[in-house]
Design a protein that fits this description.
Layout (H helix, E strand, L loop, with lengths): L11 E5 L12 E8 L2 E6 L3 E6 H7 L6 H4 L2 E4 L3 E10 L9 E2 L5 E3 L2 H8 L7 E10 L3 H7 L3 E5 L2 H6 L5 H8 L15
Parallel strand pairs: 5-9
Antiparallel strand pairs: 1-2, 1-10, 2-3, 3-9, 4-5, 6-8, 6-9, 7-8
Amino acid sequence: MELDYPDSLKGQLLLAMPGLADPNFVQSVTFLCEHTQAGAVGVIVNRTLPDLTGKDVFDELQMTCVPEAETLLIHFDGPVHTNEIFILHGPPFDWKGCLVITASLAMSNTIDILEAVAAGQGPKSFMLTLGCAGWGPGQLESEIKANAWLTSPVSKDIVFDLPVESKWETAMRKVGINPTLLSEIAGHA
């Protein structure tokens, strides 16, 4: 993707507005890993796959894992690359192929970090994701103009520390919005 994009929202959170009808994104909180004129890529931080755990993933990869890794939640971040595992994580950032996004967050999907997570030696803060969200050129900008998304600075507690079911409401309240007062109808002055 292109580098110098002054309107980039890379490293920001996208908060789905109530009128966003796409079932993949209803009340979603998406962390944008990349955003250029060529498009955008992100991971949804508040959706998990209830029938899939770390044990399932590591068994599939034929990796031995510690008990803590067996119970890891797997986030569903499709609808793009749904057969690929990504790890959104905090420091350290010395993994092979690590894409540093902000001073405190990066994305990796190489075997070295997966092995470390399986062994209980990965980053302190991380989430395993299956797939990612993607937008083509101008698509995200159009959706924001159509009132489908709000943007917000990233917050480590929203990404890693809160229960999945409370992330959207908490993120909305952090930007000063009571989500119960939001309308599904867009208005433009």
